[in-house]
Write a structure and sequence with these properties.
The complex is a heterodimer of chains A (355) and B (564).
Chain A (H helix, E strand, L loop, with lengths): L12 E4 L3 H11 L4 E4 L3 H10 L1 E2 L2 E2 L4 E4 L2 H7 L2 E4 L3 H11 L8 E4 L5 E2 L18 E2 L1 H8 L4 E6 L4 H5 L4 E7 L2 H11 L4 E6 L2 H23 L4 H21 L4 H4 L2 H10 L6 H10 L4 H6 L6 H15 L5 H11 L4 H9 L13
Parallel strand pairs in A: 1-2, 1-6, 2-5, 6-7, 7-10, 11-12
Antiparallel strand pairs in A: 3-4, 8-9, 10-11
Chain B lengths: L23 H7 L1 H19 L3 H21 L9 H14 L5 H23 L5 H23 L13 H4 E5 L1 H10 L1 E6 L6 H11 L6 E5 L6 H10 L1 E4 L6 H16 L4 E2 L18 H17 L9 E9 L6 H14 L11 H13 L4 E5 L16 E2 L5 E2 L6 E2 L2 E2 L3 H22 L1 E2 L1 H16 L5 H5 L7 E2 L1 H20 L4 E2 L7 H11 L10 E2 L5 E2 L3 H8 L12
Parallel strand pairs in B: 1-7, 2-5, 2-6, 3-4, 3-5, 12-14
Antiparallel strand pairs in B: 6-7, 8-9, 10-11, 13-16, 15-16
The chains are: A alpha/beta (355), B alpha/beta (564).
C-alpha cells in the first residue's frame, strides 16, 4: 500500500453515491485521505457505520458515511459524485446551494441526462438533439457554480478494483489542476491514472461503450466465439467514434483508456451489468424481466434509446446501435438482428482517421 | 422618412465623478513616468523568466531587432518615430559586440538591452491623457455636432445656432445604463464592444462621456494615428497605441502588461475583443483571448495582493453592441473578407479613408436620417457570471458568489496559468452569447438578410462566390414574395425576443410595409452603390451584391434562414 500517514491538515474528500462504483472509489480514496461517503438512504449509512461493509465490500476505516449533503460540501473541497445518470441532475440541484467556485467535482457516472419538452418521454419523442442530451459535466455546469469539473472513466469493474487487481483510469478535465488532484488522490500501486483534456470526448466514450457492451453480451449469449466479438468491438468502435463526433467529442478520446480500453473490458466481462443485459436478452428473456431482477440500473439501456435517436437526428450511420434498439424496444430477436447486421453493406475498415 | 424612437431612453446623465482629477485615467497620466517604469520592469522580469539562459535571451533580442529592421524597411508609417532606425542600429551593434564578451558580461549587457527595448515600447504605447485637451475636444465635438444637426435638419435661417437637436437624437443608448454607472463607481469597468467601423472608438468615447462616466482608456490601432484628426481625438480621449505590425515577443508582452496593469490600477478600459473590425459584418464569434486573459490576470493579482476578508476592487466586463444602418468601410471590409476566404491571399492592412472622407461621412450622417443605436449589456465578472448593481456576482439562481473562490486551490489564491486560460475561454463564450443576445435588429438588417437569403434560396446550387456573380437580370425579387418573407422572419425575431435571445429597435414594429420602406431607405445609405433598392416596378433589386451580403451577415447565427 502506498498509503501515507494522514495529516489533519488535509481536508476530507467527498464521494456522493454509495453504489458499487462509489463504494469502491471511496475505498481507493481512503488510502490517501479521510473520505465522507454520502448515501441517500439512512439505512445504508447505519449499515456502513455498524458493519464497516457495503454491498459486499469491506469499507476502509477512513470512510465516514453520512446522509447530509450540506456537510459533505462544507467539509470537502473535492467531491466525486457517482450516482446513476437518472438521478444526477436532481442530486446536483440538492447539492448546488452548498457549492462554491473553489470546489472541484470529478464525476464517475457513465450515462446521459435528458431534458425533454413537457409531455414527452424518450420513447415518444420524435427528434432528439444535443440541446436535450447532456453529459454529466454539462449538468454540473448548468446546475452549479463549479467550474473545475472532471470525469473518471475507463475499464473499472468495481469487483476487480475492490480485489486490488491492476487497473487504470482516465481523468478528463479542461483543467490540468483537476487532473493532477485526481491523480494524487487515486493513484496507487495497483491503480494507474491517466489524464485527458477532452472532457466531453471521454464522457461520450464512457457512455457510448455501454451500447456495444450490451451487443457483446448478446453475442456471448448466443454462444458465439471470439471472432464474432473481435468483429463487434472493432466495428462498434467505429460507430462510437462517429456518434461521439456528432455529439461534440474528438476521435482521440475514443482510442484511449476510456474508449477502446473500457470497450474491450466490458465486452469481455460477465461482471458488467450491460453485458449481462445483452446476455440474457439472447437467452430469450424480455427486457422487462431483466431490468426488474437487477439491483442497479444498467445505463446502457437508456443510452441505446438516446444514441439511436441522436444518430437519426444527426444522420450518423450507426447500424449496431439502431439494430440493438429494435431488439430492445421493438421485439426483434437477437438472431434476426445478427442476420441483418451481417448483411449490412459497409466494408471500409477504417475511415475516421482522415482529418 | 423617419420612425421616431422612444425619447425617454435618451435622457441626460450627470457625471458620476465630479472633477477630472478624480478619474482613474487622470491619476494614471499624472503618474505616467512611474507607470511606464513599472510596466517596463514587470515586462522585463516576465520575459527573463521565460528565457532563463543568456543564449535564449540574446536570440530573442536578435529576432526582435531583425523583425524591427524588416518592418522599417518594408512598411514605415507617418507616425513612426524619426529616431527609430538609429535606435535599432545601436542595439544591433551592441549585440554584435557581445560575441567577444564573457558569459557574465553578456548576460548583464543582454539584460540592459532588453530593458531598453521594453522601456521604449512602453513609452511608445503609453497614452497621453490631458485634462485640458480632453475638455477642448469634448466641447468641439459637442459644438460642431450640434451645429451640424440643427443646421441640417431645420431648414430655416438661424437654425444653425439653435440647440433643438443634440447627438442624443441621433445615437440611441439602450440597455443597462444605470447598472453601468453604478459599476463604474463600484469597481473597474472593462467595456467590450463589437467592432465594425473605425468610427467605433470615437462613438464609444462620446457615449462614455454622455453617460456621465469618466474617460476610459483603450488601445487604438497605430494606423489610426496616421489620420491626423483621429490622432487628435484619440490622444485626448486616453487612447494608448497598439501597433499590429509588431509581432515580436517583447512588444506583445509590454502591450499586455500595459493594459493589465492599467486595469489593475483601476483605469476603466475598452477592449475590442474581436481584435479587428469584423470583415464579414457578422457579430464576432471568435475573440482574441490575450486581452481577456489579462483582465482575469489583473483580477487574480488584486485578490492575491489583498489579504482575505479585505475588500478587493472588482473588475466588471460590460459587453456592448453597436448597431448601424451603415458602415463606412463596408464595401472594402467585405472585399477583404471575400478575397481572403476565396483564395487565402495575404492582404495588407490599409485605410483608404483620410480626414476628408471622414468629414464627408460625418456631414452626411448628420444631415440625413440614419441613426445609430448602442446596446449596453449587463455587467459580468471576469469569469462571465452576471453581477447585480452592487457588483456582486450571481449564479443562475441569483445566489451571490465570491469571484475570489475561482482562484482558490487548497484554501489559498494561487496562480495557475492553464486554469486561467480555461476561464478566458469561458468568458469569451459568454461575451459572444451576450453579443447575440443584446444585438438590436434594425429594419435595414432585416431587409438585407431576407433579400440575400431569398436569392440564395432561388439558386440553391450556387455557392457564395457563384451567387455574387449572379447576372443582373436574375437580381430582382418580387415585392410580394419579399414582403411575405420579411414578415415571417420578423415574427421569428419577435419570438426570439420573447426568449430573451435578441432585441429589436422600436422601428421594427408596426406595419410591415413601413418597416421595409425604412429598411430600404437606410441600408448602407451612403454607399455609392446601394446594396438594396426598390425599382420602378416596386420590386427589390441590388446594386452591390457583396455589400448586401455584408449587411445580411448581421443576422447570421440566429437560425433565421429557414423562415425566409
Amino acid at each position: 500500500m502506498t498509503s501515507r500517514s494522514l495529516s489533519d491538515k488535509d481536508k476530507p474528500v467527498g464521494v456522493i453515491g454509495a453504489g458499487n462504483f462509489g463504494s469502491v472509489i471511496a475505498n481507493l480514496l481512503a488510502q490517501h485521505r479521510k473520505v465522507l461517503l454520502y448515501a441517500r438512504d439512512p439505512k445504508v449509512v447505519a449499515h456502513i457505520l455498524e458493519k464497516k461493509e457495503n454491498r459486499g465490500y469491506k469499507m476502509h476505516e477512513h470512510i465516514v458515511p453520512t446522509n447530509d449533503l450540506a456537510s459533505v460540501a462544507e467539509a470537502c473541497d473535492i467531491i466525486f459524485p457517482i450516482v446513476p445518470s437518472a438521478h444526477f441532475r436532481s442530486m446536483m440541484r440538492e447539492l448546488s446551494p452548498y457549492l462554491h467556485p473553489y470546489h472541484l467535482l470529478i464525476h464517475g457516472t457513465k450515462g446521459f441526462d435528458l431534458t425533454l419538452p413537457q409531455n414527452e418521454t424518450i420513447a415518444t419523442i420524435k427528434e432528439l438533439n444535443r440541446s436535450m442530451v447532456k453529459t454529466m459535466s454539462e449538468v454540473i455546469s448548468e446546475e452549479s457554480v463549479v467550474a473545475r469539473v472532471g470525469c473518471l472513466a475507463g475499464p473499472n469493474l468495481a469487483r476487480e478494483l475492490a480485489e486490488g487487481h491492476p487497473a487504470a483510469t482516465v481523468i478528463a478535465s479542461h483543467f490540468n489542476e483537476v487532473i493532477n488532484v485526481g491523480k494524487k488522490l487515486l493513484r496507487s500501486d495497483h491503480f494507474q491514472v491517466y489524464g485527458n483534456n477532452d472532457l466531453v470526448g471521454v464522457e461520450l466514450a464512457g457512455v457510448l461503450k455501454n451500447v456495444i457492451a450490451i451487443a457483446a453480451g448478446a453475442l456471448s449469449g448466443m454462444g458465439y466465439g471470439e471472432n464474432a466479438k473481435g468483429l463487434l468491438i472493432s466495428r462498434g468502435m467505429v460507430e462510437m467514434v462517429y456518434l461521439g463526433r456528432a455529439l461534440g467529442g474528438n476521435t482521440k478520446a475514443f482510442l484511449g483508456i476510456a474508449g477502446i480500453g473500457d470497450l474491450a473490458t466490458t465486452c469481455n466481462s460477465s461482471l458488467s451489468r450491460n453485458f449481462h443485459v445483452g446476455y440474457r436478452l439472447a437467452q430469450g428473456e424480455t427486457l422487462q424481466d431483466i431490468t426488474s431482477s437487477m439491483d442497479e440500473i444498467a445505463e446502457g439501456i437508456n443510452t441505446v434509446q438516446i444514441a439511436k435517436k441522436c444518430a437519426d437526428y444527426y444522420k450518423v450511420r450507426a447500424p449496431i446501435t439502431k439494430t440493438l434498439y429494435h431488439v430492445l424496444f421493438e421485439e426483434m430477436t437477437v438472431k434476426k438482428a445478427l442476420e441483418y447486421l451481417m448483411r449490412y453493406p459497409l466494408n471500409v475498415d477504417i475511415d475516421f482517421l482522415v482529418e | 422618412m423617419e420612425v421616431v424612437e422612444k425619447k425617454n431612453k435618451n435622457k441626460r446623465y450627470k457625471p458620476i465623478l465630479e472633477g477630472i482629477p478624480d478619474w482613474p485615467v487622470y491619476q494614471l497620466s499624472k503618474n505616467r513616468k512611474e507607470f511606464i517604469e513599472e510596466v517596463a520592469q514587470k515586462t522585463f522580469s516576465q520575459i527573463k523568466k521565460n528565457r532563463p539562459t543568456t543564449k535564449q535571451l540574446i536570440d530573442e533580442i536578435q529576432a526582435t531587432v531583425y523583425r524591427e529592421q524588416q518592418r522599417m524597411k518594408r512598411n514605415r508609417w507617418r507616425v513612426d518615430a524619426a529616431d527609430e532606425p538609429k535606435f535599432w542600429a545601436t542595439i544591433k551593434d551592441e549585440l554584435v559586440a557581445l560575441s567577444s564578451k564573457t558569459p557574465e558580461e553578456s548576460q548583464a549587457k543582454a539584460d540592459e538591452l532588453l530593458y531598453r527595448i521594453v522601456f521604449r515600447y512602453a513609452n511608445e504605447i503609453a497614452g497621453n491623457f490631458k485634462a485640458s485637451s480632453y475638455r477642448v475636444t469634448r466641447e468641439i465635438v459637442k459644438f460642431w455636432f450640434a451645429r451640424l444637426l440643427n443646421g441640417a435638419r431645420v431648414k430655416k435661417f438661424g437654425a444653425f445656432f439653435r440647440n433643438r437637436y443634440s447627438l442624443r437624437d441621433k445615437i440611441h443608448i439602450v440597455g443597462k445604463v444605470g447598472q453601468l454607472r453604478k459599476l463604474a463607481k463600484e469597481g473597474t469597468v472593462v467595456m467590450v464592444p463589437t467592432h465594425f467601423s473605425n468610427l467605433d472608438s470615437i462613438l464609444i468615447g462620446w457615449i462614455i462621456h454622455s453617460l456621465g462616466l469618466p474617460a476610459f482608456i483603450y488601445g487604438a490601432g497605430l494606423n489610426l494615428f496616421n489620420i491626423k484628426i483621429f490622432a487628435y481625438f484619440m490622444n485626448s480621449l486616453g487612447a494608448y497605441k497598439v501597433d499590429r505590425r509588431k509581432k515580436n515577443v517583447p512588444y506583445l508582452e509590454t502591450l499586455k502588461f500595459y493594459s493589465m496593469l492599467a486595469v489593475q490600477k483601476g483605469a476603466h478600459s475598452i477592449f475590442f475583443p474581436g481584435g479587428t473590425r469584423s470583415r464579414s459584418g457578422k457579430l464576432e464569434t471568435q475573440l482574441k483571448l490575450g486581452l481577456l486573459s489579462s483582465t482575469i490576470e489583473a483580477q487574480r493579482n488584486l485578490y492575491l495582493d489583498t489579504p482575505e476578508g479585505q475588500p478587493v476592487r472588482k473588475i466588471f466586463i460590460v459587453p456592448v453592441t453597436l448597431n448601424y444602418h451603415f458602415v463606412l468601410e463596408a464595401p472594402d471590409l467585405i472585399d477583404e473578407y471575400l478575397s481572403s476566404k476565396g483564395q487565402d491571399r495575404y492582404l495588407p492592412e490599409q485605410d483608404k479613408y483620410g480626414s476628408f472622407q471622414l468629414l464627408r461621412f460625418l456631414f452626411k450622417f448628420f444631415t440625413k436620417g440614419s441613426n445609430i443605436s448602442v446596446s449596453i449589456g449587463p455587467g459580468l465578472d471576469v469569469i462571465g457570471n452576471y453581477v447585480d448593481d452592487g457588483g456582486n456576482s450571481l449564479d443562475a439562481h441569483q445566489r451571490v458568489i465570491d469571484t475570489r473562490d475561482y482562484f482558490i486551490s487548497d484554501g489559498a489564491v494561487t496562480i495557475d496559468k492553464q486554469r486561467e486560460d480555461e476561464y478566458t475561454r469561458m468568458l469569451s463564450q459568454k461575451i459572444v452569447s451576450e453579443y447575440h443576445r443584446i444585438n438590436r435588429v434594425f429594419g435595414s438588417h432585416l431587409v438585407a438578410f431576407v433579400a440575400f437569403e431569398l436569392w440564395q434560396k432561388k439558386h440553391p446550387n450556387l455557392d457564395l462566390f457563384g451567387l455574387l456573380r449572379l447576372p443582373e437580370e436574375d437580381q430582382e425579387l418580387s415585392y410580394e414574395e419579399f414582403r411575405a418573407s420579411c414578415k415571417r422572419v420578423r415574427k421569428e425575431i419577435y419570438r426570439l425576443r420573447e426568449e430573451n435571445k435578441i432585441y429589436y429597435a422600436t422601428h421594427l414594429t408596426g406595419k410591415i410595409d413601413l418597416v421595409i420602406r425604412h429598411g430600404l431607405d437606410n441600408v448602407g445609405i451612403f454607399h455609392l452603390n446601394r446594396p438594396l433598392l426598390m425599382n420602378k416596378e416596386g420590386n427589390i433589386i441590388t446594386k452591390d451584391f457583396s455589400t448586401l451580403y455584408y449587411y445580411h451577415n448581421r443576422l447570421a447565427g440566429y437560425d433565421l434562414e429557414k423562415f425566409v
